[in-house]
Amino acid sequence: MGTEIFQHGILMLDGAMGTVLQQRGLPPGGQPELLNLTEPELLASVYREYVAAGSRVVYANTFGANGLKLAKTGHAVAEVVRAAITVAKEAVAGTGTLVALDVGPLGELLEPMGTLTFERAYELFREMMEAGAQAGADLIAIETMTDLYETKAALLAAKEATGLPVLVTMSFEADGRTFTGCTVASMAHTLEGLGADAIGLNCSLGPDKLALLLKELCEHTRLPVVAKPNAGLPDPVDGHYDMGPEEFARALLPCVEAGVSIMGGCCGTSPDYIRALSAALAGKQPGRRRYRKESFVCSAVTPTPLTGVRVIGERINPTGKKRFQQALLEEDLDYILDVAVQQEDAGADILDVNVGYPGVDEVTMLPKVVKKLQSAVSLPLQLDSSNPDALEAGLRVYNGKAAVNSVNGEPEVLDRVLPIVKKYGAAVVGLTLDKGGIPRTAEERVAIARRILTAALSYGIPKEDVWIDCLTLTVSAQQEQARETLKAVRMVREELGLQVVLGVSNISFGLPNRALVTRNFLIQAMGAGLTLPIINPNQKEMMDAVAAYKVLSGEDESCRDYVARFAGETPAAKPVISGNSDMTLDDAILRGLKADAGRLAAEALQTESELSLVENHLIPALDRVGEDYERGKVFLPQLLSAAQAAQAVFEVIRTSIAAKGGAPVKKGKLVVATVQGDIHDIGKNIVKTVLENYGYEVVDLGRDVPPETVLNTVREQGVRLVGLSALMTTTLPAMEKTVRLLQTLEQPPVVFVGGAVVTPEYAKQVGADHYAADARQSVEIARKVLG
Amino acid sequence: MELNIDEALRYLGAGRQAPPELRREAEDTARRLTARLRPRYTYRVFSLERKDGVLRLPEADLTLPGKDAQTMLSDCGRVVLLGCTLGVEFESMLRAEQARDMAKAVLLDACGSAWVEAGCDEAEREIAARFPGQYLTDRFSPGYGDLPLSLQPAICGALDLGRRLGVHVSERCLMNPSKSVTALIGISDRPQMARIRGCAYCAMRETCTLRKGGTRCGN
Fold it and tell me: Least CA distance to A340: which residue of chain B?
């Protein structure tokens, strides 16, 4: 069967299964999918009633038939899915009704919220999809999703494991977001890009509340749109839904007018609702759709329509940055995240991510960095690599619609990269160069742009997703090229109507007062039609120029953002730096003044060595704060502020050493981990922050860490000290297991434990060497063991 | 709904003796948090059965073991199960804050605990208004007294928290997102004693290691 069933008129789905079963006296709870094995006749009667009420598609009873939920039942996924599809197919045989494999959420949160990895989620979904296809499902319905990342795993699995049409619906709250913050626009662009055949909304709200969101969805996708709402809202006292069949059907009519063409019901609905809906829709056609054809990228939580100038932050890139190179080689992902967060705070709209450096395996590094960034940064990413395998690995784990940087006019490059761009629904940057290098004239560059566009279209990539980089050359070396670049920008924008990208900073290389030249070029380029400048957003004068441009272009309506940006700004206002010239480095650390501490450390390095700075200033100052903390004179936030001021000093020291090419200052290595089953890791993170700022190298294994991982890390890296944390009584056994496992080593490391429910007695009982009540005590332990 | 700053400061081990700059920072954090997100909650009313001295909520398929539930619910014929959460948006906010500034993250964490409690208070007011002329017990949660944490999955299941609030409970009974609370409130015809009223009224408040670590037993 093809996707044509979604294309003509209105397609009627079914209503709820659970509600109907409960009406027939089945108690709630349990694992409803087991009914496929125990009560096939009951299920078959419900399917038949839906067919009689007008459903042309019924969802088989497989919502939670995944490996995670079935694990405890003793039944295999394939067995349950086969039974479910068979029951449904037999029930509707001869009626022309189609049977969908119903796929709901796995029931555990994915990373970064939970600990289920994207890859594992994919495998679990794939198992279901294969079983469904083998059992003869006609289509796949992924539904009730609230996490775009989990939805992506399911959709990829459906597309890669089967050739069946896939219908995907997610559940939104009245504020227009899912529980995980996903927006309607982000959902639409991401899922359409990944190749869903129809998308829509189900569950959580009644049709009246869902109507506005459905209208928005229709504007953001070309795909057929699905509505499967609840029968209103449940009454908290008796659990009954408040909308009857007629009211339900009436409330869905505005959705049909907005263009929704696939309908059904979710919680609280029954065959009566589908019958009422079928009657109300008889002879009706879905209204004309109004699709907003716009360029767009997004993370799950930040939809970014490219309707004006959007700044791409350039700082996640090792080129010419010793400290960044060191971070890549050491896999210091926290440093890279810090670079990202700074750019987000500075106002970047999209972040370019480049991790290419000799000695770094991009294919494994790029997805790692993508996962790390999307755990704490809300901006969409642009993956920047010349390695197609790395691009694919990065795109696969990206939660949203990303951009790819880049292809060029070379057919081999286009044929290798564009299929990947298409498969993952990304946007793509095309550089206007080819084997012959960068053409000298604007006309030749535009010709390459045309070639790139044609190739992209031939792969099914829409025009809105093709961005052209007209290439900035250094003006001090090739002066006439600045004008050619500007001319090419204008032509691509006006003649081809495409988004235009430029790496702006290159222009001023080799000149004094670079910022002035760069800023002037940026302004002229925006005037010529540049929409996506790649710049350093931490340079305030660049961002100011963008803000002013948006006022003049009319994009910043009523100058609102501009006024907000500059209102109340006094010329001398730099709140973080006190400017107090009497302040010493020790004071700055004690008072937690990060910027001052960094500045004073840089000054001190003129006359002192890095080591002396650590031994004579940093550590004594941290010790004083630690003692005050123990006496109850300062509290945890202040202790951490001081630690972070120390961090700023360490950054200065690291940069200084990296610039000289020396080995980093490190006092000794330890491993920290939050034990298996536990996801509360803020306590462990506090300990890590403080220890790092004493100069220890902390290998952070994260949370929910299996005992074997701790053991292997200790063994492989020859670590002598391990810190374990647990927050809940229910996870303490995992702590003991980890300690005992470490004791099986020939030379067991020293182990300290801590966490809310851990006591000194418990520490002794499980065989730990030390109990640490807080971060401060963990420093004392580290000193004893590592010096 | 109002976030109680003193409560947040208590989670940091500071309480009323907190230095003014710490209090100011906590207030700033609370303002940011409350402007960005509000606690979401859901509840349902269940009947309470007593058979051979065992307490059961038959519609929820839930048995309440232990002395403390018996004491708390001794006068009650019905029980409200309540779930409240700050959602994963808080988790994202906290992760981002940890990347920016650990000191502020610790403040945010404490404010989050106080904010989810404020959500429970709000839900409790709403429940009280639904039952005029009836009396509510103090609310209490799995982990309180001898009421085991192992009830968490059944309570989450009865409230359908995964679907209603996006709250999941792990095999080890941890709730995710972390700032999530489940609670029980008894409904009675007779006035009820204020047996527990959060950490401020808890006998363990001086020695509690949870509070010292910036967290608490209920969430």
Answer: B99
